[in-house]
Write a structure and sequence with these properties.
The chain is α+β, with helices and mostly antiparallel strands. The chain is built from seven helices and four strands; from the N terminus they run H-H-H-H-E-H-H-E-E-E-H. The chain has a four-stranded mixed beta sheet, covered by helices on one side. The structure holds FE2/S2 (inorganic) cluster.
Amino acid sequence: MTTSHTPWSPESARALLVEIDEPGPVLVALQTLQAAFGYVHSDSIPIVADVFNVSRAEVYGVLTFYSDLRTTPPLDVEVRICMGEACQAVGARSLRADADALIGPSCDVQNVFCLGNCALGPAAVVNDRMIGRADASTLRDAVMATGAGA
Ligand code: FES
C-alpha cells in the first residue's frame, strides 16, 4: 500500500481509543485502529471492550460483520474486483479468474459487491485507483504501476 501505518501496540491502540467521543463507538473505534495500524489486531478486541464498556462478543461481531475491516496487516497491493450483477454480466467472473493467475503473492485480491461504477464494468480497484472496463491487461498494468510487480 502507498500509505504507511504505525506498528500496532496495546498502548498506542488504547491511547487512540480514549480520544474517541462519537456515537457508535465500537465501529468508530475499529475504523480508527485500522486507519492507524492498517488493520485491527486481534488483541485490540479486549481493549475496545474495556474502553467502551461493551462485551468482547459485541466488538468481535462488529469486526467480523464489516468486510472493510481487516484483521491482518495489509499486503503491498490491494485489488478489489466487483462481483456485482452488472459487472458479472460483462465479464467479472473471468476477470476474477485471470486475477488469481496474473497477480503475485504480494497482492491481496478480494471480491466486493458494487463499486458504484456499474456503467463501466467490470470494475476493479487497485489500492485506491478505480479501473473501469477492467481486463487482465489493465489490471496487470495497474498492479505494476504500484511498483509491486505482478
Ligand atoms: S456492479 Fe460492479 S460496480 Fe456496480
